[in-house]
Design brief:
With about 250 residues, the chain is mostly helical. Helix content is about 75%, strand content about 0%. The longest helix is centred in the last third of the chain and has 33 residues, at about 170-205. It is globular, with a radius of gyration of 20 Å.
């Protein structure tokens, strides 16, 4: 029986080469829930609600939290790309290649996150902050994100997500190819999802909103041809919710 279970597990791992990405993302969700629960009894202030930065958090801590969110939400979206990579490279190079892919994919999201954090800090320290205090900025951000969801340029980018070229399979050039694939996939992912991440950043990184948007993004990624407009409608509903909470 034990041998049969091991064979079944081995088969599932071979049939689903992206399994470790899903497990890693699930562990990060557990960490995120634990983090939220651990501060649930304390007075909670969003890090960037209303475009105000919380100065007690260092840039390193903010960057870490940003990447945790990116990995939890976005890494599972690369499942199809990981499957394509595994189907194109020798078994002996798979672990190395997947690590390089994730590094390249992470790099662009990390750069984007640093820029976003830096711009937020600049706005928080400027006189422009006063202009936003009487406005439901989170509701406005989600409404704008919803309008961008079905923009033609984004539809083209979304269609291109997951499409890769055949990398070389030996030597340093193979590693460079995989690294480029990861970076390119990260660029496409940022281009298609940046508006969602910015809106959520402004709204304060609510765990419930993260979960709702992750489900909507995953649905869009894998069932986009049905054109159900789920992501757009989700953003609009979150906009209404933030508007109600503001007033």
């Amino acid at each position: 029986m034990l041998t049969s279970s091991r064979r079944r597990v081995s088969y599932l791992k071979a049939a689903n080469p992206h399994w470790f990405v899903l497990v890693f993302a699930a562990l990060l969700w557990v960490y995120y829930v634990w983090q939220q629960l651990s501060i649930g009894n304390a007075p909670h202030h969003h890090q960037y609600h209303g475009m105000h930065a919380n100065t007690k958090f260092s840039l390193l801590k903010l960057a870490f939290d940003w990447m945790v969110m990116v990995y939890a939400m976005m890494l599972p979206m690369t499942s199809g790309t990981i499957r394509s990579i595994v189907n194109r490279i020798p078994l002996t190079r798979q672990s190395r290649s997947l690590a390089l892919f994730i590094f390249g994919y992470s790099l662009i999201w990390f750069i984007f996150g640093l820029v976003l954090l830096y711009l937020t800090a600049l706005l928080a320290d400027s006189s422009l902050t006063m202009m936003f205090e009487g406005l439901p900025v989170a509701a406005i951000a989600y409404a704008l994100a919803g309008l961008l969801c079905n923009a033609k340029f984004r539809v083209r980018l979304l269609t291109a997500c997951g499409s890769i070229w055949a990398p070389r399979i030996t030597g340093l050039k193979a590693d460079i190819d995989i690294l480029k694939i990861g970076f390119d996939e990260g660029v496409k992912c940022v281009q298609t999802c940046a508006h969602i991440m910015i809106a959520m950043h402004i709204a304060g990184h609510s765990l419930l909103q993260m979960a709702i948007l992750t489900i909507a993004l995953f649905y869009e990624k894998h069932l986009y041809r049905n054109k159900k407009n789920l992501l757009r409608n989700t953003c609009m509903l979150l906009s209404v919710w933030e508007l109600i909470m503001f007033y």
